[in-house]
Amino acid sequence: MITLKSPREIEAMEEAGKILAGIHVSLRDFIKPGMTTMAINEFVEKAIRDAGAIPEQIGFEGYEYATCTSVNDEICHGFPVRNEVLKDGDMVKVDTVVNYKGAMADSCWTYIVGESTPELDHLLEVTKKALYLGIEQATVGNRIGDIGHAIQTYVEAEGFSVVREFIGHGIGPTMHESPAVPHYGEAGKGLRLKEGMTLTIEPMVNTGTWRSKMDKNGWTARTRDGGISCQFEHTIAITSDGPKILTEQD
């Protein structure tokens, strides 16, 4: 079911988004070589609760953690429980959902641990630009396919691939709502966007194949060929003035 949000509901989601965006800003300095992904998870959960909000991922279909922390070839839904510590050059994706007074915000951001490389920096730049190119297409009257087409054509021109098994989605009043928002597709195809829709746009971009395989835990997806995967995600609202980013960072 697709729910169209009122201006008041969008403002409430933006408050949740500000909490989430602030946490991602804090993680820029927090994430360092030698720490565990569980330390990241604990930091995020405490920050959410200290803000008077709820870490919405806990308990979702049995999931136990406040975050998904996916490292290197892990595409998404990485468990923060792992034996190894983070090291220089690791790429870690931190995805979490904030519920603040019933309003939802969802955002994933990618961080390079310690020293980066030109190759990793290029992957970061392309993935982030792809996110904003997709957002630019999220206007009243456009179609879902316009978002995916903008992302796919740019990413593939840069020599990378776009994950297809995992996509964006509507959000609010629950974490996952209709419509589905693929990060690939044909321009002018798919559902027409309407004022009041709230969506996540969250391209996952790989250095090699877009195809994934699942870990035995039934949650964590990783690249089939061992390539590195990167992701950036915002929650947005479709408004008469254009797309409004609800999780924008300073």
TrEMBL record:
Function in brief: Removes the N-terminal methionine from nascent proteins. The N-terminal methionine is often cleaved when the second residue in the primary sequence is small and uncharged (Met-Ala-, Cys, Gly, Pro, Ser, Thr, or Val). Requires deformylation of the N(alpha)-formylated initiator methionine before it can be hydrolyzed.
Species: Jeotgalibaca dankookensis
Gene3D superfamilies: Creatinase/methionine aminopeptidase superfamily (3.90.230.10)
Cofactor: Co(2+); Zn(2+); Mn(2+); Fe(2+)
Ranges for domain Peptidase M24: 11-239
UniProt cross-references to InterPro entries, sorted A to Z: Creatinase/aminopeptidase-like, Pept_M24, Pept_M24_MAP, Pept_M24A_MAP1
Cross-referenced Pfam families: Peptidase_M24
Protein residues bound to a divalent metal cation 1: D95, D106, E233
GO biological process: proteolysis
Gene: map
Record-given protein name: Methionine aminopeptidase
Top-level lineage group: Bacteria
Major enzyme class: hydrolase
